């Protein structure tokens, strides 16, 4: 279960986006056999693998039932400003927190276009995409939908 609040605005030569989220999770698994298929063990015996080696694997081993809960939270912020009709500058900040996982991203960008652009800025602002992720970004339909200009 999660709750996400998001706000995006555009004003004159500024565009910004803010997102906050909080979530809680619960999972449970039942006890189960670790090796549910006994046939491979019988085949191993037929191939001449020593019984002691097979016993080390413990064909009747069971995994105990488990349950876990977790809470997570995060905040993301982006802002972009038109410096001139061809130059745009922006900043991005993202922080998430949960048990055993807390990524942090911060970045600045400076964008240049070959033609003047005096129209609306993207909302939400789109940071530059690292070359290694460029193809994935192009194929992402959500990102295409969020763009206000082609």
Q: What can you see in these coordinates?
A:
With 150 residues, the chain is an alpha+beta fold. Helix content is 18%, strand content 45%. It has helices spanning 39-46, 51-57, 134-139, 141-146; strands at residues 2-11, 14-29, 32-33, 62-63, 66-82, 87-97, 104-112. The strands form 2 sheets. Strands 1-2-5-6-7 form a 5-stranded antiparallel sheet, with no helix packed on it. Strands 3-4 form a two-stranded antiparallel ribbon.
Q: Write the element-wise H/E pattern from the N-terminal end onward.
A: EEEHHEEEEHH
Residue ranges: pLDDT <50 for 5 or more in a row? 145-150
Count all strands and give the number. Answer: 7
Helicity level: 10-25%
The N- and C-terminal alpha carbons lie at a distance of 35 Å
Tally of helical segments? 4
List keywords for this structure.
five-stranded antiparallel sheet; 7 strands; disordered C terminus; single chain; 18% helix; alpha+beta; two-stranded antiparallel sheet
